[in-house]
Amino acid sequence: MPTGGELKFEVRNDAPTLTGANITFTIDIILPDIQLVLPNGEVVWRKNCFVNGIQHHEGEPTYPQESTDEQNEVFPDGSPLNHHGDQKSPYVFVWKTCGKYWQVSDGLSSSLTISTVDIPLGSYVMDVVIYHHRKRDRFIPIGYASTQFCITDQIPFAVTLTQLNNEEESDQTFIQNRAIVFSTVVHDPSSYLANSDITFNWDFGDGSGTMISRELTVTHTYTKTGFFKPHVLIQAAIPNLSCHTPPLTAAAVISEDHAGPVQLISPESASKDMEHSGSFSADMKTAPHLDTNGVMDLEAIYQDTIVFKKPRPSNSEQDCVVYRYGSFTTGITVVESIEDVQITQAVGALHEQNTVDYTISCQQSLPTDICTALSKCLSPGKTICSAVSTLPACQLLLRHLFNDSGNFCINVSMSNGVSVAVTSARVNVLIGSRFIITATVAMVLGILAVALAIGILAYKHVKLYQPLSEISAAGMTHSMPSLLWGLIKQQAALKHSVLLYRAV
């Protein structure tokens, strides 16, 4: 018979939290397999079992409820207990940190959200004690858990770098002359920065200058190879909710009902009616005449100047905006990619029957792996991959053994852990005759065949026709195709080419 099990608790939070924002703590009670939660929230035994020597029966409540007066129920500290609707919450969670505590009545899952305005910067631990509520003032502790959180004045955010057709982005290696996408995610679960003006100051580390943007996603293309350190500085101008615009006073508003008539006066009468607040005397010092042809002593000019400092308003614009910052720096490597992959040649092997050698070339970066897929063009074939040894140049020889005649399609892909390049070709194989025709050569041979037919018709007029002798289907034939074959196989592979063998 089962022996029950222990309760488990998963407690977490959404830190790091920017100072002034709200932080949320969440806890889940994980029941053992022997216990079951009914739709009404009650926990019962799933089957008959023994726990601490006591037998329990299937369907029996795990924590028997006692009749209580719900209107007079209280928390462990004696404060009134509030219910969520008509359903009674069987658990009480007492959270405690920084000398304060909070009590929450809830089900198997609960959360607590608090403000960080009065919490100093630093790292803290939130403790939670879980009680099962039996009756009005009876609480049975069933577990304890804790979680660590931190309050910071730096904006928490993350930056991810992605690039199209990049084989492995996690190694921070990217391809030259191809755009890199910088995606920024600001960690703000409480929406504290929802009404803020957020700007990003980007420096990609390649001497291209600084870019300022309000977008979460930007792109940049590195035109040179090497190691770079992109850097971004984020600034958030946060409105201060405690700062309010002062209301207009009655003296600052003039209505049309109290406005008097407009009277035009002359400048002379205006100067007569003007009342001076002081008088000028001959004893007052005057500034010396400025000599535009030389440099004057500015200290002598302004030594008697009096500067009045304008008092700062109690509710200035600087007081109404709070600025927060954050920064991110990473290191990346930019390399060349494999470009312009081509099958430059497809010829029969010199000393092997039914075998075709492909010469494959590429530009810029050298490959480390090559994959080929050979099929009859109508249905996909098997893909074979192999490593490529170090090459002095991006050119190698690929060999295939054919067991059947027909048209074949070959797809070749090269990769080096950063980039992938592909190419394809079509080849016509005639088993036994050692006659291999690529798509390009086939067109040339077609033109030569027409010219040959015209030549034969002209030749019949001057000489009697003599039939050609044939050896065997598997051997060489002394005919025009054999002559062309001899011309084709003169295109030998390069001296430093790598030979990769395939059988089809």
Automatic annotation (TrEMBL):
Signal peptide as annotated in the record: none
The protein's name: PKD domain-containing protein
Biological process annotations from GO: melanosome organization
Assigned keywords, A-Z: Glycoprotein, Membrane, Signal, Transmembrane, Transmembrane helix
Domain PKD: 194-228
PANTHER family assigned: MELANOCYTE PROTEIN PMEL 17 PRECURSOR, MELANOCYTE PROTEIN PMEL 17-RELATED
SMART domains: PKD
